Amino acid sequence: MPNTLSPDWLKKSVFKPDIFKGKVVFVTGGAGTICRVQTEAMILLGADAAIIGRRPEVTQKAADEMAQLRPGAKVIGVGNTDVREVKSLVAAAERTVKELGRIDFVICGAAGNFLSDFNHLSSNAFKSVISIDLLGSYNTVKACFPELRKNKGSILFVSATLHYYGIPFQTHVSAAKAGIDALSNALAVELGPLGIRSNCIAPGAIAGTEGIDRLLPADMREKALSLIPAQRWGQTEDIANGTVYVFSEAASYVSGTTIVVDGAGWHTSNGAANNAVYPQMLIAQGNDTPKL
Amino acid sequence: MPNTLSPDWLKKSVFKPDIFKGKVVFVTGGAGTICRVQTEAMILLGADAAIIGRRPEVTQKAADEMAQLRPGAKVIGVGNTDVREVKSLVAAAERTVKELGRIDFVICGAAGNFLSDFNHLSSNAFKSVISIDLLGSYNTVKACFPELRKNKGSILFVSATLHYYGIPFQTHVSAAKAGIDALSNALAVELGPLGIRSNCIAPGAIAGTEGIDRLLPADMREKALSLIPAQRWGQTEDIANGTVYVFSEAASYVSGTTIVVDGAGWHTSNGAANNAVYPQMLIAQGNDTPKL
Amino acid sequence: MPNTLSPDWLKKSVFKPDIFKGKVVFVTGGAGTICRVQTEAMILLGADAAIIGRRPEVTQKAADEMAQLRPGAKVIGVGNTDVREVKSLVAAAERTVKELGRIDFVICGAAGNFLSDFNHLSSNAFKSVISIDLLGSYNTVKACFPELRKNKGSILFVSATLHYYGIPFQTHVSAAKAGIDALSNALAVELGPLGIRSNCIAPGAIAGTEGIDRLLPADMREKALSLIPAQRWGQTEDIANGTVYVFSEAASYVSGTTIVVDGAGWHTSNGAANNAVYPQMLIAQGNDTPKL
Amino acid sequence: MPNTLSPDWLKKSVFKPDIFKGKVVFVTGGAGTICRVQTEAMILLGADAAIIGRRPEVTQKAADEMAQLRPGAKVIGVGNTDVREVKSLVAAAERTVKELGRIDFVICGAAGNFLSDFNHLSSNAFKSVISIDLLGSYNTVKACFPELRKNKGSILFVSATLHYYGIPFQTHVSAAKAGIDALSNALAVELGPLGIRSNCIAPGAIAGTEGIDRLLPADMREKALSLIPAQRWGQTEDIANGTVYVFSEAASYVSGTTIVVDGAGWHTSNGAANNAVYPQMLIAQGNDTPKL
Ligand SMILES: NC(=O)c1ccc[n+]([C@@H]2O[C@H](COP(=O)([O-])OP(=O)(O)OC[C@H]3O[C@@H](n4cnc5c(N)ncnc54)[C@H](OP(=O)(O)O)[C@@H]3O)[C@@H](O)[C@H]2O)c1
Ligand SMILES: NC(=O)c1ccc[n+]([C@@H]2O[C@H](COP(=O)([O-])OP(=O)(O)OC[C@H]3O[C@@H](n4cnc5c(N)ncnc54)[C@H](OP(=O)(O)O)[C@@H]3O)[C@@H](O)[C@H]2O)c1
Ligand SMILES: NC(=O)c1ccc[n+]([C@@H]2O[C@H](COP(=O)([O-])OP(=O)(O)OC[C@H]3O[C@@H](n4cnc5c(N)ncnc54)[C@H](OP(=O)(O)O)[C@@H]3O)[C@@H](O)[C@H]2O)c1
Ligand SMILES: NC(=O)c1ccc[n+]([C@@H]2O[C@H](COP(=O)([O-])OP(=O)(O)OC[C@H]3O[C@@H](n4cnc5c(N)ncnc54)[C@H](OP(=O)(O)O)[C@@H]3O)[C@@H](O)[C@H]2O)c1
Question: Name one GO cellular component term (chains A, B, C, D) (predicted).
Answer without folding.
Answer: peroxisome
